Amino acid sequence: MAQKKQIGLLVFPNITQLDMTGPLQVFCSVAEAEVHLVWKTTDPVPSDTSLVITPTITLADCPQLDLICVPGGLGTDPLMEDPEVLDFLRRQAEGAAYVTSVCTGALVLGAAGLLKGYRATTHWNALSALPLLGAEVVRERVVVDRNRMTGGGVTAGIDLGLTVVAEMFGRPVAEFVQLRLEYNPQPPFDAGSPDTAPAEVVASTRARMEAARLKRMEIAARIAERQG
Fold first, then answer.
1. Which residue pairs, CB below 8 angstroms and at least 24 apart, start in 207-213?
2. Each residue of 15-53: pLDDT tens digit?
3. Is 69 among the residues known to form the active site?
């Protein structure tokens, strides 16, 4: 029997749970994959909703992964300056076939120096921080540049997961997963992007999220200065 591919998703306090659970559902639909939820301890961690997530393995005990995925959320702000997490990602990236992220997880990859010279994307409200971390910004749902795959905000995690599965296991497997999950999005409103949402919705949303954006920019600027 062929050895299962090792897939790890980083989990952490104040994670946006759908950033993680979207691709998790995709990966766990593949019989040839063994999926780990990785954190410093195996104690439950709070998400940004009422859902509490229990890690399955620690950073220290995690095997070499074929794929590492870093989800996003407000909890990524401290991770961008967390030596233990950044060292873990650098070590895993050396042997992983794919290094991936969803939403602001891309900023953590960038803080680890793993997006320098790569095309990448993230949540639209965090795109301005990516160039400070050495990445070339691309405003697409999923961006693939060599073995780096980055997804946009939150719901893009499902698209990222399917893209990764197609690369690792072949398109028919990815299409099986898509059909199994009935992933056939038909949103009730065309407001999922600043390019299509009503101007007043964009303005009010930007205003509500501006403090978070500025905080990430400050962190990214500090990291950029340290990285030279």
1. 209/125, 212/74, 212/125, 213/125, 213/126, 213/128, 213/129
2. 999 999 999 999 999 999 999 999 999 999 999 999 999
3. no
Amino acid (1-letter code) at residue 198: P
Rounded Cα–Cα distance for residues 193 and 190 (Å)? 8
**3-class secondary structure, 72:** coil
Could you write out the DSSP letters of every residue in 144-213?
A: EETTEEEE-STTHHHHHHHHHHHHHH-HHHHHHHHHHTT-----SSS-SSTTTS-HHHHHHHHHHHHHHH
Classify strands 98-102 and 67-70 as parallel, antiparallel or unpaired.
parallel
Please, how many CA atoms are within 13 Å of residue 153, restricted to the half-sphere of its CB? 10
Burial (CB < 10 A; 0-12, 13-18, 19+), residue 11, is: buried
Rounded to 5°, angle at Cα 42 from 40 and 44: 105
| 3 state SS of 22 | helix
- Using a cut of 0.90, tell me whether the model's pTM lies above it: yes
> Do the Cβ atoms of 98 and 167 come closer than 8 Å?
yes
Who contacts 98 (Cβ-Cβ below 8 Å, separation ≥6)? 66, 67, 68, 147, 148, 149, 164, 167, 168
Tell me the CA distances in angstroms from 212 to 20, 76, 92, 186, one per residue in order.
20, 11, 29, 29
